[in-house]
Design a protein that fits this description.
The complex is a heterotetramer.
Chain B (H helix, E strand, L loop, with lengths): L1 H9 L1 H19 L3 H23 L11 H5 L12 H32 L4 H10 L1
Chain C lengths: L2 E3 L2 H18 L4 H27 L3 E10 L2 E7 L1 H28 L4 H19 L4 H19 L5 H33 L16 H14 L11 H4 L5 H28 L1 H7 L2 H21 L3 H21 L3 H32 L10 H4 L1 H15 L5 H15 L3 H26 L17 H19 L2 H16 L1
Parallel strand pairs in C: 1-2
Antiparallel strand pairs in C: 2-3
Helix pairs in contact in C: 1-2, 1-4, 2-3, 3-4, 3-9, 3-13, 3-18, 3-19, 4-5, 4-9, 5-6, 5-9, 6-7, 9-10, 9-12, 9-13, 11-12, 11-17, 12-13, 12-17, 13-15, 13-16, 13-18, 13-19, 15-17, 15-18, 16-17, 16-18
Chain D lengths: L3 H19 L7 H26 L2 E4 L10 E4 L1 H20 L1 H8 L3 H20 L3 H19 L7 H30 L4 H8 L6 H18 L7 H7 L3 H27 L1 H8 L2 H20 L4 H20 L4 H32 L10 H4 L1 H15 L5 H16 L2 H27 L21 H19 L1 H13 L1
Antiparallel strand pairs in D: 1-2
Classes of the chains: A mainly alpha, B mainly alpha, C mainly alpha, D mainly alpha.
């Protein structure tokens, strides 16, 4: 099997290399790939869209339709994980710790539960004492990470960045919260319902912008026709459209990252995990 | 010989991508552990991303973002000065796809492990034939 | 030739198809259901008859339903040959429906609604095949008929019928998909048309070897005609209830097979084409072998229906043989035999069924002395048997007469010998039954000396068909005229 | 309205997302929202088809950017037809599967509808797009949603089947992506029409050759052409009924469409058949695929799995037809996209109804099903006949064109494979029918005990759709000539 695999892999590799034999040298500015459409994007983007970041302009405007589906791909992964793993049955056994004394309680009756408050706290089955340094550092860091994420989203058309990147950063801040505290803390602060709504809403903002363009009489995702809605910004209307969809992407990506994380680490129970 | 060598040097990016891709593909076909296969898959997809991104590269060109200084004075933008934005754009999509697939594959692995308590393919096959 | 566009052929096909929902919906009320069946049968018959004068006056009726590809549409065309066949099938359908009421109720069979529904479907397909304008349409109805007959053959749903049903399908469906379909598509590929034409559709596209192969594919592919060695489904299919055997395996199904072969020989290849390659002799030889072998086998069969089945196999080959003689008289005889054999054979099947209903006997050896108990039935049997043997004064004599003339016309003494010796064999396997039924001593007789016929609904139909067989000797005109008209179309070009 | 092309894809997309939103707000609204989306989509598809038939191909520029700068939708007769097919089947399936989805998926069903609609967005988008990379993204949406749905069926086997599907699916999609990369490297464009112009005349280029092979190979893997089919049977067997019903008819067919699109629009006949001369090799491969699919189907004990192997076999039909290199073969392949989608849909509708009632569909579990679920079985029988290729069901007519194409090219092995495959399918289905028909559990041949069997049919909504689609097989059969003349031939001209 391994030898067979090796032969197949080598043949594929050789075949792919054969295809590159006619390629222009690496970095050749006159290769066909860099002329034709690509050159147009570089030369005309600013003129047409007023977005200095060509990549963002191509991503969200020229090929914005691709990107909408790309967001949908992410959304699908999230909802797929949810559908596959989410397990609404409660856990059979619960662990609590008595805060004043540190005594651990193990309750086997699934119907009984204690109220969480000053006296009792949740505890995971494999309990690791919360690390004060970790907790504190993360508590300080998380708001900054989130601000940075918002910045990356908002400045997508000016500098490297955009909805995906910002969304991932924001999502990772939430994941950090779960890692440094525990999963319950995250789930308590950001409910599953909220994440679900956000995930769908983010993609809907994108698609909704497109539909709005349809309603305004243009083609789908033709931001140009939105100008009447934003008086005085006719020049920048395309960049503005990009911003709107970037925000949508950001929201969706953030929510989906978190959904995937929560479901995988807790095997769908949303109670305890990494 | 030197011809071949110079050919390789001039296009070593493609050689790298092919080798990376071969590693990934080999992992997907030959490995027994499902997680390893998933990782192989990820390497495979990354190789393609590498390929695309290297297509877009141009020597002596900068990132495809106009600085404020450029725009202010109405400088004519020359294509040769910026690397190709299109391939980066395409690869953003490919990355997202590969992340999504990876995430979902992981979720599946979790599920399979829950059910069979193993991720080794031969053991899984044994378990399935037992049922 | 003048062609009239009319919707009648479509209606004739559709009538019994449209009545199926009625049959299903009135499944709880047998009398209502039966009246629907009769209504459909009578309307169908009237529709067919209403086209008869037009056909006899030398015109044709045509209707194109769906255009599929140039030269291969779903289309109807009523000519003399089709008319003859449709007339036989639709008239016998009414009689069989009557008979099946007597038979099915007499035996208290299950699934009667299913039975009558598929029966109606089968008869629709038969009429459709008769009226087909081209090979594609013919194939379409041929297949529908195969599939619609399957639930009828396996009506009893027991192990025995399962095996028979399987055999039936393997032979019928296997040959039609495996042989006819490629042959048909090859024809279309070679000529670009499948339309039945008086002189055939080929004009030099085929060499002799490929023409031979193609012809054999058709002859064996239409396995419903029961040419050996693709005949063995027919005896197996005798597990079906007798009305099915009677109508389908004496009239509709097997005749569609023979009819299809006749159509292919006359309409696709064309008489002149076959004559130029001497291919008629090949088919005739195959048919003669079938005639002789099947008659010999029939002699050895003790089960009444199986003996009839082997007799049918032989008689079908008469039709093929007659047409394969490629002489006007021979072809007339062959085509006429479609009708004559149908009336004779259905009488015999009706008798077999009636005996089964009245006494439960299936084997000939158990029927000694039955003439005393069921005289009417056995007299009808005599007439039917005479018709099959070809003795005057029955219809069968006329077709045989033409067949013999055909062999003389073509100077084919071997075929003449085949025909005559086969007639002797026919007599040899039918006459003892009749003889034993009446002329036996008291000790030998297995029945009491008391007349006790099958239910009325069983006896009346068989008397009617026997009477028709008898009458056809004196008044063969409608069928004879149609046959001669058809042959004129094929040979006159 | 000029935005119909966009609506075809956007309507199911937006409604799918809305449904995903309403899962968290008001669960019961998900279903009607999704249904409305698919309705709008199918309505728009029909409108687009009408327009294309009236006034030629339609171009729609996404974001207002003209190609090759932006993404364009380009709709000609071929994809207009496929669009109608996809959206129509999806819409009908959603109605038919309402009950079964609730039963199988349970409380998650409202989120499931989101995935369902996204899946269809993918399929529709793949069909309508004129951009190579957009195609990739949509293939990935289709794939990812199908991975998700496969895993939701059988709780034990589903996830594993899905993971194996992922591995092979990713390889397929990645090969395609690499192919697009090579093409982009050569031309600098991603628009299909633009690429086609730019690679014209580059017959000897190794880049184009590799790009071509990668693209086609990738699509073949996604399509499950014979040696790459290993993922398909498990994935389709263990998925929930609502998904199996839509993926089985559509997924492979849409992939075949992409193959045709790449062959016709991007690389061009001339390049494939004259420069590379691949026709013979691929037709052989297709021949093997047809036979292998059939043979493997024979070995299956589970009805669903058996059908999936038949799909593998059917893929061989279309690939073979498309690579025949002549107009007849191509006509057959395109017609078979339509017909095969319909008949597979009808089959799976029937199977879904069975699953709804009896849960397991191992062939031995089907005893007495003709009595228990007569309407479902009627639909099943029709669909099965269509797969076998019995006229007048539509399966016959595409087979007809395919065999004609094979004969024109002289690829008799492919023609023979099609015939043999028909026979194999006949064996397969009659094996099933026999069990359903004969083994009705209790009785042998006992006349009195044949009371009406208790009918336990699937819900009416499922039955109506199942019946309609099965009847449409016949309608499509009769109108296949019209379809060929108004859609396929004008497209190929």
């Amino acid at each position: 099997m391994r030898i067979l695999a090796f032969i197949v892999v080598c043949l594929t590799g050789a075949f792919l290399l054969y295809g590159t034999s006619e390629f222009p040298d690496w970095g050749d500015p006159n290769s066909p790939a860099s002329l034709h459409v690509a050159a147009y994007y570089i030369e005309k983007t600013y003129e047409e869209t007023h977005a200095p970041n060509f990549v963002t302009a191509v991503v969200t405007d020229y090929r914005g339709f691709d990107t909408m589906f790309e967001t949908a791909v992410i959304f699908t992964a999230g909802i797929g994980c949810f559908l596959l793993l989410r397990d609404f049955r409660g856990k059979k056994e619960h662990y609590y710790h008595h805060i004043p004394t540190g005594v651990i309680l193990h309750i086997k009756d699934e119907k009984k539960s204690l109220t969480i408050g000053k006296e009792f706290g949740y505890m995971d089955k494999e309990w690791v004492p919360p690390d004060l340094i970790n907790k504190t550092v993360c508590r300080i860091l998380i708001p900054f990470i989130q601000i940075y994420a918002l910045y990356v989203v908002a400045h997508g058309d000016y500098s490297p960045g955009g909805g995906f990147q910002g969304g991932v950063i924001f999502g990772s801040s939430l994941i950090l919260l779960a890692i440094s505290y525990d999963l319950k803390t995250l789930v308590k602060r950001v409910s599953e319902r909220l994440l679900g709504i956000f995930a769908a809403l983010g993609v809907l903002i994108y698609a909704g912008t497109g539909v709005l363009c349809l309603v305004m009489g243009g083609n789908f995702l033709d931001y140009g026709v939105l100008a009447p809605l934003f008086p005085g910004m006719a020049d920048h209307i395309r960049a503005l459209g990009m911003l709107v969809v970037e925000i949508g992407v950001g929201i969706a990506v953030m929510a989906v990252m978190t959904i995937i994380y929560i479901n995988i680490v807790s095997e769908g129970r949303h109670d305890e995990g990494l | 010989m030197s011809d071949v060598l110079s050919l390789i040097i001039a296009k070593y990016n493609y050689w790298l991508y092919v080798i990376l891709m071969m590693i990934g593909l080999y992992g997907m076909i030959a490995k027994n552990n499902l997680i390893k296969k998933v990782v192989g898959m990820n390497i495979f997809q990354t190789a393609i991303i590498l390929f695309y991104v290297s297509i877009g590269y141009k020597t002596n060109a900068g990132i495809p973002i106009i600085t404020t200084a450029d725009t202010a004075h109405g400088v004519v933008v020359k294509a040769a000065d910026y690397i190709n934005p299109l391939t980066s754009c395409l690869m953003l999509t490919a990355i997202v796809v590969s992340v999504a697939t990876f995430g979902y594959a992981m979720a599946l692995a979790v599920r399979i492990y829950q059910r069979y308590q193993t991720l080794e393919e031969d053991e899984l096959r044994m378990r399935l034939s037992e049922e | 030739m003048e062609t009239i566009i009319s919707i009648k052929p479509l209606l004739a096909v559709l009538v019994s198809l449209l009545v199926i929902p009625m049959l299903v919906s009135s499944s709880g009320k047998p009398n209502v259901r039966e009246s629907w069946t009769f209504m459909a049968g009578i309307i169908k018959f009237l529709l067919v008859v209403s086209m008869l004068p037009v056909i006899l006056s030398g015109k044709q009726i045509a209707l194109t339903l769906f255009k599929i590809a140039p030269g291969a549409d779903i289309a109807f065309r009523v000519d003399a040959l089709g008319m003859l066949f449709a007339l036989v099938a639709s008239s016998l359908y009414i009689i069989t429906s009557m008979y099946s009421i007597g038979y099915m109720r007499g035996l208290n069979e299950h699934g009667q609604t299913r039975f009558v529904s598929f029966f109606a479907l089968a008869i629709s397909a038969t009429i459709g095949a008769a009226f087909s304008a081209n090979l594609l349409t013919l194939y379409l109805f041929y297949e529908i008929l195969s599939l619609a007959t399957y639930p009828l053959v396996t009506h009893h749903q027991d192990a025995n019928s399962r095996i028979s049903g399987r055999k039936y399908l393997i032979f019928i469906l296997g040959t039609s998909i495996g042989l006819v379909l490629p042959a048909m598509i090859y024809c279309y590929h070679a000529t670009g048309t499948l339309e039945f034409a008086g002189g055939g559709i080929f004009s030099g596209q085929l060499s002799k070897p490929s023409a031979t192969v193609l012809l054999l594919m058709f002859v064996f592919g239409f396995a419903k005609a029961g040419i050996m060695p693709v005949h063995s489904w027919l005896p197996a299919a005798m597990v079906a209830p007798t009305p099915v055997s009677a109508l389908l395996h004496a009239v509709a199904v097997v005749k569609v097979g023979a009819f299809s072969i006749v159509r292919v020989i006359t309409g696709i290849f064309g008489v002149d084409f076959l004559l130029s390659f001497h291919l008629g002799a090949v088919v005739a030889a195959i048919a003669s072998v079938t005639i002789l072998v099947s008659s010999c086998i029939a002699l050895t069969q003790d089960e009444f229906k199986r003996r009839l089945a082997y007799s049918t196999i032989g008689q079908l080959s008469y039709i093929i043989l007659g047409v394969a003689l490629l002489s006007p008289k021979g072809m007339t005889g062959g085509i006429l035999h479609i009708a004559m054999h149908a009336f004779g054979k259905i009488t015999l099947f009706f008798c077999a069924g009636a005996i089964f209903v009245a006494t439960g006997k299936k084997y000939i050896s158990q029927m000694v002395g039955i003439g005393k108990r069921m005289p009417l039935t056995m007299i009808a049997f005599l007439i039917g048997a005479m018709s099959i043997i070809g003795l005057p004064p029955t219809g069968g004599f006329i077709s045989k007469w033409y067949l013999v003339l055909g062999t003389l016309e073509g100077d084919q003494m071997i075929m003449l010998f085949v025909l005559l010796s086969s007639s002797l064999l026919n007599a040899a396997y039918f006459m003892p039954i009749f003889y034993k039924a009446f002329f036996c001593t008291k000790e030998e007789s297995m029945f009491e000396d008391k007349i006790e016929e099958a239910p009325m609904m069983c006896v009346v139909p068989l008397l009617i068909t026997a009477l028709i067989s008898f009458a056809l000797f004196f008044f063969p005109q409608p069928f004879l005229d149609l046959a001669q008209l058809a042959v004129k179309g094929f040979i006159g070009g | 309205m000029e935005n119909y092309p966009a609506l075809i894809v956007v309507a199911p997309f937006v409604t799918g997302l809305l449904a995903g939103l309403f899962v968290w707000i008001e669960k019961r609204l998900s279903y009607p929202i999704v249904l409305a989306g698919l309705f709008i989509s199918s309505f728009s598809a029909v409108q687009v088809l009408i327009r294309v038939m009236e006034s030629g191909p339609i171009q729609y520029k996404m974001g207002g950017w003209s190609p090759p700068i932006g993404i364009e939708y380009r709709i000609d007769l071929l994809n207009a037809m496929v669009l109608c097919l996809v959206s129509g089947i999806a819409f009908l399936n959603l109605i038919a599967s309402y009950r079964s989805a609730e039963k199988e998926i349970g409380d998650r069903v409202s989120s499931y509808y989101t995935v369902y609609n996204l899946f269809l967005t993918g399929l529709l988008g793949v069909t309508i797009t004129g951009d190579l990379f957009n195609l990739y993204v949509l293939i990935e949406i289709t794939s990812l949603t199908s991975y998700a749905q496969v895993a939701m069926g059988d709780r034990d086997r589903g996830p594993l089947a899905s993971l194996n599907y992922i591995f092979i699916g990713v390889i397929g999609a990645s090969f395609y992506l690499l192919g697009v990369g090579y093409l982009y490297m050569y031309t600098g464009s991603l628009n299909m029409a633009d690429v086609a112009v730019l690679i014209k005349g580059s017959q000897g280029s190794s880049t184009v050759l590799v790009a071509f092979i990668l693209c086609i190979l990738g699509i073949w893997i996604k399509m499950a052409l014979f040696p790459f089919h290993v993922w398909l049977p498990n994935a389709y067997t263990y998925s929930p009924v609502i998904f199996a019903r839509v993926v089985a008819p559509l997924m492979t067919k849409v992939m075949v469409y992409i193959m045709l699109r790449l062959m016709i629009t991007v690389f061009g006949y001339d390049y494939i058949f004259n420069t590379l001369n691949l026709s013979d090799a691929v037709v052989w491969l297709a021949t093997i695929a047809v036979l292998a699919g059939g043979v493997m189907a024979l070995a299956q004990k589970n009805l669903k799995k058996m059908l999936t192997y038949i799909i593998v076999s059917e893929i061989g039909y279309m690939v073979g037809g498309a690579w025949m290199g002549n107009q007849l073969g191509m006509t057959g392949a395109i017609l078979h996209i339509l017909n095969d989608a319909l008949m597979t849909f009808a089959l799976f509708l029937a199977v879904g109804n069975m699953v709804y009632r009896i849960d397991r569909v191992d062939i031995t579990d089907l005893k007495g099903l003709f009595g228990k679920m007569p309407w479902t079985m009627a639909g099943f029988v029709l669909a099965a006949f269509s797969i076998v290729g019995v006229p007048p069901t539509c399966g016959f007519f595409s087979k007809w064109y395919l065999i004609l194409g094979a004969m024109e090219k002289g690829a008799y092995h492919f023609a023979a494979a099609l015939i043999i495959s028909s026979l194999i399918c006949a064996v397969l289905f009659f094996k099933v029918f026999e069990i359903c028909f004969f083994e009705s559990g209790s009785h042998g041949h006992d006349h009195s005990s044949h009371g009406p069997v208790a009918i336990e049919e699937a819900p009416v909504s499922m039955l109506i759709i199942s019946g309609l689609v099965s009847l449409s097989l016949i309608v499509a059969g009769f109108y296949s000539g019209a379809i060929v003349n108004t859609i396929i031939l004008p497209f190929l001209k």
